[in-house]
Amino acid sequence: MAEAYIVGAVRTPVGTRKGALKDVHPADLGAHVLKELVNRTGVDPAAVEDVIMGCVMQVGPQSLDIARTAWLSAGLPESVPGVTIDRQCGSSQQAVHFAAQGVLSGTQDLVVAAGVEQMAIVPMGSSVTMALEKGMPFPFGEGWTERYGRQEISQFRGAELMAEKWDYGREDLERYALESHRRAAKAIEAGYFDREIAPIAGLTRDEGPRPDTSLEKMAGLKPLRDGGRITAAVASQISIGASALLLASEEAVRRHGLTPRARVHTLAMCGSDPVYMLTGPIPATEKALDRAGLKVGDIDVFEVNEAFAPVPLAWARDTGASLEKTNPNGGAIALGHPLGATGGVLMTKLLHELERTGGRYGLQTMCEGGGQANATIIERL
User: Fold this and answer.
1) Does the pTM exceed 0.90?
2) Does residue 242 sit within a domain?
């Protein structure tokens, strides 16, 4: 049976929109991790068969197939193609899936899965804004309207709906958010992320965590909507970053002298209610575990994207997963969420945490726009 191995994983520090990375061109962000991935693995870059890069806002500096422009910006061989994909927040996790599928199918031996998002230069919603400015009925047409009506469709409403349905109050959400900051600050000070980060623009650490935040400070924030439970404190931060992983077949490992660090054990995807939007990680996790023949207790580390605090809280309640094992070094509430890069960032964190702790299985899942989710199980080698 064919195997797909992860032989390299690297990410930039995740920057804030007013921080050290605010002026770095997204193609240069992507180029930085691609070059670092090649250097760290020692692979012949001409042997790479494709570069699959996730990016959500593919407009302006992130347009024109940034996977290709980032690879060329890194000074890497012109013979290697690139493709840019959008599965919303899960874009670079899907890039890992596509890369693994290419290897598992036997049609490819070496594939890069990457992601990038420069949210200071290309703000969230840029692609929608540009379309609306031209008078286009975007993104929902007549068929959608007939099916779902003209109700608000947004991640902010979805987060409120989740908090209401699972009955999480503001204090529940804020306590979770505070713990995310505490774990992230502890991990940074302990140097847990040092091996996985490729410093850039003088930045060596993630900028987002706020070690000095408190429940009192969070309680003073206004909700994002009148009477709501969701505030900026319990939402992922607008961020800047890039990530890259190298996936290889058994033949490529032998031929290029690579060291497998983990194997891609199980891939699963699912659709979910697009109005609630953020609930997909629950069925995606159940599907992945069922396909893998594993139970939730078999997983040593979970990475569940903290788009909003209700997401991992509801996910843990419904799946029975341990919150102690979930985002052990903090999540996007503290560390940030550079949309198209986050899937690769989480996979890089997951791999390194399994290696640090000696765990065997790791599971990653993310909610995605449109009501979707990816779930990936990897096995450390």
Assistant:
1) yes
2) yes
**Residue 89 known to be catalytic:** yes
Concerning whether 270 is annotated as a catalytic residue, the answer is: no
Q: What is the pLDDT of residues 125-169, one digit of tens each?
A: 898 877 677 766 657 888 998 999 988 899 999 999 999 999 999
How far is residue 88's CA from residue 104's CA, in Å, rounded to a whole number? 24
As given in the structure block, the two tokens for residue 350 are 């997951």
Catalytic residue among 32, 89, 181, 265: 89
Count of domains forming the chain: 2
Same structural domain for residues 243 and 302? no
Q: Are residues 243 and 322 in the same domain?
A: no
User: Looking at residue 38, which CATH number applies to its domain?
Assistant: 3.40.47.10
Q: What span, in angstroms and rounded, lies between the C-alpha atoms of 197 and 21?
A: 14
Q: What is the pLDDT of residues 12-35, one digit of tens each?
A: 999 999 999 999 999 999 999 999
pLDDT of residue 129: 79
Residue linked to tokens 């999540």: 331
Enclosing domain of residue 90: 4-124+238-256
Q: How far apart are CA 106 and CA 130, in angstroms?
A: 41
| Residue 367 annotated among the catalytic residues of the structure | yes
